[in-house]
Amino acid sequence: MAAHAAQNGACAHDDDRPAGRRLGQQTRFDLGCGGGFIAEELSRRGAKVVGVDPSHGAIAAGVDHARQVGLEIDYVVGVGEIIPLPDASCDVVVCLDVLEHVADLPR
Description:
Layout: H1 2-7, E1 27-31, H2 37-44, E2 48-53, H3 56-69, E3 73-77, E4 92-95
């Protein structure tokens, strides 16, 4: 899915949008979400968010914090090499600070 989205120009460029601009009801896929820092901001801006990370601890922290602040984020344990979502299930893929964690980068 990530490769398909990148080939079709579905990249996140929200940094050039005015602060606080709503993202509508687009589904954003935060690959390598960690504890949910970016996922939470996307959710606050109105996006439906799916966060995926290989760390069970990070996902648990994200779930707990999202619950505490009243955000609905779908967190899933998984890796970018085998994305645990159906193809074309998200409008935009966000992938920040994860390449250094990829086991087989050429793949």
